[in-house]
Specification:
Layout: E1 9-12, H1 18-29, E2 33-38, H2 42-54, E3 58-63, H3 69-83, E4 88-91, H4 106-127, E5 137-141, H5 154-174, E6 180-186, H6 195-208, H7 217-228, E7 239-242
Parallel strand pairs: 1-2, 1-4, 2-3, 4-5, 5-6, 6-7
The protein binds NADP nicotinamide-adenine-dinucleotide phosphate.
Length: 247
């Protein structure tokens, strides 16, 4: 893959922390130009961007709430202003709160659907005019919970099942343009999103995992860069489950 992603303009949402930061780091290490998009953690996004730029990368941090359509337009405009095109979009931003039946209300459901589904739809649509055709790549981060939800994860799991279906449907819709759309469905990965779950159920998760350890953000980053590369040009509409063998 060495030179294949060199100079590619990559937009990673949720790039400030966790899995998105590992993805941004991996693209930068392969010579891609990277926009690290974040919602509120400016310090982490700017420090990652500065670190990768100091290592010779070409990275920019841009603030944008993907649940806000105006921010999406500004994020795309900022990316195009920085790099002139968008070769790869990685839709990684999401929120993952859990609540049991009986405790859900409309704002709770709406907040998950707006960030995890609407954000993916509107950003995908907004990047298309700036994506090479053929050759563009869209990679969505779903979740293994789309396939095996656990109690209290219902709305988050359903939002990720929607990402799986959007991936399949968008791939069919824009395949003629030579743009691929794929997704990854990680199992538990050690990030801020899973600190509580790992503290409460870490032993149980380890016991369920054939590969015998908790997944790390880097376990996901390499699959994303593979899907972004020309080597993956004949894969589209698919979701790869990457969970150490649990599912
Ligand atoms: P994380 O550590 O909680 O980071 C979430 C990232 O998303 C942050 O960069 C955050 O920005 C950004 N974000 C959240 N809401 C946003 C919004 N409305 N607009 C823009 N950015 C927003 O999460 P993670 O564990 O790395 O998860 C990354 C992706 O992997 C998510 O799609 C998640 O659903 C998926 N996933 C994670 C796991 C896991 O076990 N960790 C498993 C399966 C799937 P700020 O830093 O500015 O808040």
């Amino acid at each position: 893959m060495n030179k294949m992603l060199e100079d590619k303009a990559v937009l990673v949402t949720g790039g400030s922390r966790g899995i998105g930061a590992a993805i941004a780091r991996r693209f930068a290490s392969l010579g891609s130009r990277v926009v690290i998009a974040y919602r509120s953690d400016r310090a982490s996004a700017e420090s990652l961007s500065a670190e990768l730029s100091a290592e010779g990368g070409n990275c920019v941090a841009i603030q944008a709430d993907v649940a806000n359509p105006e921010h999406i337009e500004a994020l795309v405009a900022g990316t195009v202003e920085s790099f002139g095109a968008i070769d790869v979009l990685v839709n990684c931003a999401a929120i993952g709160p859990y609540r049991p039946l009986g405790e859900m209300d409309a704002p709770f459901v709406k907040s998950i659907l707006e960030t995890n589904i609407m954000g993916v739809v509107l950003l995908t649509q907004a990047v298309l005019p700036f994506m090479p055709s053929p050759g563009g790549r869209i990679i969505n981060i779903a979740s293994a919970l789309a396939y095996r939800p656990i109690p209290t994860s219902s709305v988050y799991s359903a939002s990720k099942a929607a990402v799986v279906t959007l991936t399949h449907a968008f791939a069919k819709e824009i395949g003629k343009r030579g743009i691929t759309v794929n997704a990854l469905a990680p199992g538990v990965i050690e990030t801020d999103m899973t600190t509580k779950i790992i503290a409460e159920r870490g032993e149980q998760i380890l016991a369920m995992t054939p590969l015998g350890r908790i997944g790390q953000p880097d376990d996901i980053a390499g699959i994303v860069t593979f899907l972004a590369s020309p080597e993956a040009g004949w894969i589209t509409g698919r979701t790869i489950i990457a969970d150490g063998g649990v599912t």
